Amino acid sequence: MRSYTLIAPAKINLYLEIISDRPDGYHELAMILQSIELADEIHLQPLSNEKICVNCNHPQVPTNESNLAYRAAALMATQFPQALAKYGGVEITIRKHIPVAAGLAGGSTNAAAVLMGIDLLWDLGLTKSELEELGATLGSDVPFCVAGGTVIATGRGEQLSPLPSLDHTYMVLAKYRSLEVSTAWAYKTYRQEFSSSYLRDTENLAARAAAVHSEEIVKAILKKDPRKIAEKLHNDLERVVLPAYPQVLQLRELFASQEGVLGTMMSGSGPTVFALVESEQQAQAVKLQMRTAIPDENLELFVTRTITHGIQMAQST
Ligand code: C5P
Asked: Can you tell me where the transmembrane regions are (predicted)?
């Protein structure tokens, strides 16, 4: 039987607007999600028994059922018991490059890669939209990670409309290694503090939001104009995360003061902050300036760029 190695890219949020709370505890969102080159490697090896086993080179990543990649494999085993019996279980080896608990969808992209890898291992022939649907039961960002590219995401983040892809826009990412922000906390706090500003008077809130509120940034993306995109970056969750996490605010302000930075924003619920720049050379210069300003080795800095695809196969043996 074959084994597969998949490349699972991270994402950033170019736009995140919270439209409303929902009866199911989630929030109705309008987001623009963007795949970036920074990626993990996921190796899937068939087993002769029916077990699921996860290994990871990162000490902070759990290898039990609390790992979303494990849950993705368990979901496939439940959905396709005959394939599990025929082909056997799977050993999943994750080589982490994406910072953990960072607002970059690291766990979600690992789960998406496992869904796609097991589809190949078990010869299931699932379509992308079937994989996205399975992904939505694991987490709100998983369908996007299956799809990849540049996408408007509405609903709780699982309803996707692709945009023309935005290639080769360079950026610097900054994250303090020891700092984590709980996504559930960020949304809950936003709901408590700002729910009075929710729109409640339209039938199709998400569609309206995507059409009206994010219109400017969508136009900039259609023009592939990084300067305009950078001007229109938006993330409602900054309203709760920046006041509660001074280190995130500090990164945000420091990026904004750097020469060559077109725009800066926190990704998802943070704590990663990204800064869009004009070129790879600029990105390296901004990274160096940040490192000089904050010599703390706890600060992780990455130069990366936008890409036009999601999960890709690296190797099949
Ligand atoms: O879907 P996922 O498990 O990734 O979401 C993590 C948490 O973020 C949820 O438990 C919920 O508290 C919050 N969330 C939300 N609205 C969304 C997406 C996530 O409130 N649309």
From this structure: none
